[in-house]
Specification:
The complex is a heterodimer. Chain A is an all-alpha fold. Chain A contains 29 helices and two strands. Chain A has one domain: MetI-like (MetI-like fold, Orthogonal Bundle), CATH 1.10.3720.10. In chain B, the strands form four sheets. In chain B, strands 2, 3, 4, 7, 8, 11, 12, 13 and 15 form a nine-stranded mixed sheet that branches. A two-stranded parallel sheet of chain B has the order 1-14. Chain B is globular, with a radius of gyration of 23 Å. Classes of the chains: A mainly alpha, B alpha/beta. Chains A and B meet through α3, β2, α14 and α21 of A and α1, β3, α3, α12 and α13 of B.
Chain lengths: 646, 420
């Protein structure tokens, strides 16, 4: 508990007290003329309600029932096959606390969240900064980054397990060829290193999305600001700390909060790599919950109890995080926070210290910087290439694996290249399973869900950014809380809901579920971006006679293009890769209603896994997401914001 | 929870919520009997190999062809998700009509299953090998239908053992210890025994070694998991791992992607495996290993036995579904349909008629006769479902973390006894 705020604080721009950035979430500028009558007043007062209604309804309709159901289950005694044996009181909680493994699992969970989120955000900050620069091949690097993001986590985890193998593992082969290792390491099997191997995958898979959130935040910072700072004589580091980082705070908050949620609730990643190994050394509370419910004790009541505690824990973590990250904008003005003066003094001290440090290292950094300027045009593309190759490497392994035979896949030591390139795997896979149908189904679900999410989220985010009203906090809270339930914990409730509404195996239900789970993210990202658009633009437009809706469509949305793109990509990819819920409520082969992620599981047999087909299908599944991204990527490139705020 | 709501009100709300969901769950589940459809049944089958889906699709098409107006909805689920999915169906009252699993007793205990005599013709019922039928019975009544079987024991690499000075497999534990020591001394870093104590097969491996030492899961019809012989066996396995007679991290190793490839590449001298299982044999034949089969080496004068594992079909009790279920099952168990399925999956039969057809088969002929004499795990006891999962997780841990065997096994025994 205590370690998390510390990590947050290291990345916390609030420590830098250099004035509030102009990104207050809710400027209270009196914009409209006085109301003409009581009806009109009512109409105006209910603006937020009306604009928020679709999102609220969606979340409430889909997520509230299974959430409540989960809480209910935690008080019910449920037998091994899921039948209810009556009210259990607090018995489930009691038996949970009696588990010997619980303390270790709690420790693991904290370590997992702190390390993965911390490293992810640090790495992503650097990467976003890098990708914001203009250099040859930038587009390629951005495309490379989309690949790990676009690949279903189940697949990525599978390929990492494959890379992490002992004697026949590719990582061992590489490290031994480089003379870094003498003998193979059992990366995911050795209990001493397994959890760290897992964390590495956790960071690598979280970085792309985080980097994009931060990148889209960077795009909103007007170039004039950093330029002005430079003219004032600030060095690049000072400019970054004093101008860029504070301006980035909304995006950073989003990145941290969403990472926290995703990492805390990470299931597929850990399960695919570690699920079949014995012991609890790599269990977080979510995988432990799954074990209690489905593989070990078979006690869904006790698992639900852990699910409830999970949600409480993550809510507290997020609340603390948000409190720590909250800026000193209008939200806090007028009331001096306790300790603010001390913080101010501390801030002054660190500023002095860093200035002194900068002076001290200038003799070294000066020539370095000069040297860098000379090699910059080569150095940047070269660094970009390294980054791209790093993120593409696992998928290269996947690609090569898709062309190998069974025997080659288990060969010791592993071969980099296949002996015979079995290209026919790519043709055969279409006959082995109805792959074309899976693609069609997944595409329909993902496209419709993405469209609905954008339609529902944009107005909600806009009104949240532009109006301060009672219930604003409550709404944002609801939105966040909807993300706190691990899907695994909601499964049974969702299934029951599907049965109750007649939505089993029907498109509308799976689309509704996907939308409800993703609309929160969309609202959060969009609302921070809208908030960073100066409200003067609205006022000007309003004077020109535009209504609120048209302001949003014509002015705000184009300005928020980077965030819209992030949201589109994110939602599409999330839905495209969703597995657990589809497996349960949208899986009807006789009606050709099987999404891709569920369909390819057929290559995972009891005694044999057909890696080559699994990998071939997975690689082809990445293509639509990469194409989508390539089509809209250029809108992410800076210039949009600058262009219109001039 | 920060609202000043009186604590009792919270509790009352919790209680009513809980009882509401309890009532809902009860109403939706199979007691009283769920509604079935006489013209349409849902069949859930586990994914064994890539041949599973094509086989069942063809079978269903053929069946529907011969039974106009009837429909069979097929769902193939991989093993990793199978039990979860079936339990979700049970929990939400969406029972399948037929399901395939490696367990059945809990469902029989909850009165969710048709007894075998209600959904099988007398001919089909009489066709099951008696050992399998007995191992599919709960409280004296057969509820599950033997589906596929394996006989398991030790594969050994003749070449390696010969190099180590042994003619054939070790028969006693003492011989085994001599052999592993000699093999470890050979050049080439060979693995004397590939030990798979991961979740997939840890309990199989341990149970096999325990029986070979005169122990086992039960004794005289009572749970005996923490018996002296079993404690000794777990200590023996820990010792094997500690002394480097196994591959590294046996607690985290499974058979299909762990010990089997090691053996198939000629790098492990002995492993536990399923006799005649196509998935394993394909690997071995590709690696061109000269192998022999044996039962695990015994100690304390125990009788050598192979380990039998069978998977089941269950017919869920729904009103009006009996006839169509019976027709479909009779159709499936006909040798002309069942035998091709056995060949598809590369596993062994549970019926006499299929044994007759397969007894001259090149690959499995030598094993089909063994199935009836193998020793089974106590899958007929409901608590076995829980034990399986707990043991899968904890046996491997006990070896990798060197926990005291007696303590670990006492915990299993406690679960077993409390579950009846």
């Amino acid at each position: 508990m205590t370690t998390t705020p510390r990590t947050a604080a290291t990345a916390d721009p609030a420590r830098n007290e250099s004035g509030a950035p102009p990104t207050s979430p809710a400027p209270r500028t009196g914009t409209a003329p006085p109301p003409a009558g009581p009806l009109r007043a009512l109409w105006r007062r209910t603006v937020p309600v009306r604009w928020l209604a679709p999102g609220t309804l969606l979340i409430a309709a889909v997520i509230v029932f299974p959430a409540v159901y989960m809480v209910g289950m935690s008080f019910v005694e449920i037998n091994r096959i899921g039948l209810t044996d009556g009210f259990a009181g607090l018995e489930n909680y009691r038996s949970l606390f009696a588990e010997d493994e619980l303390p270790g699992v709690v420790g693991n969970t904290l370590l997992w969240v702190v390390v993965v989120v911390g490293l992810t955000v640090l790495a992503s900050l650097a990467l976003a900064q890098f990708l914001a620069k203009d250099f040859f091949g930038r587009r390629f690097v951005r495309l490379a980054l989309i690949v790990p993001w676009a690949t279903s986590l189940v697949m990525t985890a599978t390929v990492w397990r494959f890379i992490y193998e002992g004697g026949n593992g590719l990582l061992n082969r590489l490290l031994m060829d480089l003379r870094i290792l003498d003998s193979p390491v059992d990366w995911y099997k050795d209990p001493d290193v397994a959890f760290y191997s897992l964390m590495a995958v956790g960071v690598i898979t979280s970085v792309p999305f985080t980097a994009y959130v931060l990148l889209s935040g960077l795009q909103t910072i007007p170039g004039e600001l950093t330029e002005a700072a430079r003219i004032d004589g600030a060095g690049p580091w000072t400019t970054w700390r004093r101008v860029t980082l504070p301006m980035l705070r909304p995006s950073l908050t989003v990145a941290l909060v969403l990472n926290m949620l995703h990492v805390f609730n990470a299931f597929a990643l850990i399960w695919v790599i570690m699920g079949k190994t014995a012991g609890n050394h790599a269990d977080t509370s979510v995988t432990f919950m799954y074990k209690i419910a489905f593989t070990g004790r078979l006690d869904t009541g006790e698992a639900a109890a852990l699910g409830v505690l999970n949600v409480i824990a993550i809510s507290l973590l997020i609340a603390v995080l948000i409190r720590l990250l909250r800026g000193r904008g209008p939200v806090a003005y007028g009331t001096e926070r306790p300790g603010a003066r001390a913080a101010e003094a501390l801030g002054r001290r660190t500023r002095h210290a860093s200035a002194a440090l900068a002076r001290a290292v200038r003799p070294v950094t000066g020539p370095l910087a000069a040297g860098w300027r000379r090699v910059r045009h080569i150095g940047l593309p070269l660094a970009g290439l390294c980054v791209a190759l790093f993120f593409l490497a696992p998928y290269a392994a996947m690609f090569l694996g898709s062309l190998k035979t069974d025997a080659e896949l288990f060969q010791v030591p592993a071969d980099y290249l296949p002996d015979e390139w079995a290209w026919s795997n790519y043709a055969d896979v279409w006959d082995k399973i109805p792959l074309a149908s899976y693609f069609r189904v997944s595409l329909v679900v993902a496209l419709v869900s993405t469209a609905v999410v954008l339609l529902v989220a944009a107005p909600a985010a806009f009104i949240l950014a532009r109006r301060d009203f009672r219930g604003r906090g409550a709404f944002l809270g609801l939105v966040l809380v909807s993300q706190m339930f691990p899907a695994v914990a909601l499964l049974i409730g969702l299934y029951r809901e599907a049965v109750f509404t007649g939505g089993i195996h029907s498109y509308w239900f799976i689309i509704a579920v996907n939308c409800a789970f993703n609309v929160a993210f969309a609202i959060w990202i969009l609302h921070t971006q809208f908030a960073s658009i100066p409200p003067e633009i609205d006022e000007a437009a309003m004077l020109d006679g535009l209504g609120r809706f048209r302001i949003m469509v014509r002015m705000a949305l184009p300005l928020a293009a980077p965030a819209l793109i992030t949201v589109t990509i994110f939602t599409f990819i999330q839905v495209w890769n969703e597995f657990v819920v589809s497996l349960t409520v949208f899986n009807e082969p006789t009606e050709n209603r099987v999404p891709l992620t569920v369909g390819v599981q057929q290559f995972v047999g009891l005694y044999e896994t057909n890696y080559q087909y699994l990998f071939a299908a997975s690689l082809m599944a990445i293509v639509p997401a990469v194409i989508l991204f390539a089509l809209i990527e250029r809108y992410l490139v800076s210039g949009l914001t600058k262009g219109s705020t001039k | 929870m920060s609202h000043p709501v009186p604590r009792r009100a919270v509790l009352r709300a919790g209680a009513s919520l809980a009882s509401a969901s309890a009532v809902a769950a009860l109403a939706a589940c199979g007691r009283p009997v769920a509604a079935g459809d006489p013209d349409s049944i849902k069949v859930v089958i586990a994914q064994y190999t890539e041949g599973t889906q094509p086989y069942w699709r063809r079978l269903v098409a053929k069946f529907e062809d011969r039974h106009p107006g009837k429909e069979v909805k097929l769902q193939i689920i991989d093993w990793g998700n199978l039990q979860t999915q079936i339990n979700t169906m049970v929990q939400t009252g969406q029972l399948p009509d037929i399901a395939n699993l490696n367990l059945f007793a809990d469902y029989a205990d909850a009165d969710l299953l048709h007894p075998a005599e209600d959904v099988l013709t007398p001919e089909v019922r009489a066709d099951f090998l008696p050992a399998f039928a007995a191992n599919a019975s709960f409280r004296g009544r057969q509820y599950a239908l033997p589906f596929l079987a394996t006989v398991n024991g030790m594969y050994y690499n003749r070449t390696i053992l010969r190099d180590a000075g042994f003619d054939g497999a070790p028969r006693t534990r003492d011989q085994f210890l001599d052999a592993v020591e000699a093999i470890k001394a050979l050049p080439g870093g060979l693995v004397p025994y590939g030990l798979a104590l991961g979740i997939e097969s840890g309990h199989y491996e341990f149970g096999t070694w325990a029986r070979a030492a005169g122990g086992g899961w039960t004794a005289d019809g009572r749970w005996a998991i923490d018996s002296e012989r079993n404690v000794e066996t777990l200590g023996f396995l820990q010792d094997l791992a500690r002394r480097g007679y196994t591959q590294p991290n046996p607690g985290q190793t499974n058979r299909p992607d762990g010990t089997w490839p090691l053996f198939a590449q000629g790098r492990a001298a002995m492993v536990y495996g399923a006799f005649g299982a196509r998935a394993f044999l394909d690997l071995i034949e590709e690696g061109d290993v000269d192998y022999g089969l044996a039962v695990h080496p015994v100690s304390h004068g125990a009788e050598p036995v192979a380990h039998g594992i069978q998977d089941y079909l269950m017919a869920f009790r729904k009103s009006g579904n009996r006839e169509l279920v019976r027709d479909f099952l009779s159709f499936f168990y006909r040798p002309e349909n069942y035998v091709p399925y056995l060949k598809t999956e590369g596993l062994l039969p549970t019926t006499r008629s299929a044994v007759d057809v397969l007894k001259d088969d090149r690959r499995v002929g030598r094993y089909v006769g063994m199935t009836g004499r193998a020793r089974f795990d106590p899958t007929t006891r409901p608590v076995w479902a829980e034990l399986l999962g707990v043991m899968g997780n904890d046996l491997g841990r006990a070896v990798s973390e060197n926990e005291p065997p007696a303590k670990v096994l006492r915990e299993f025994q406690a679960i077993a006894v409390s579950g009846g």
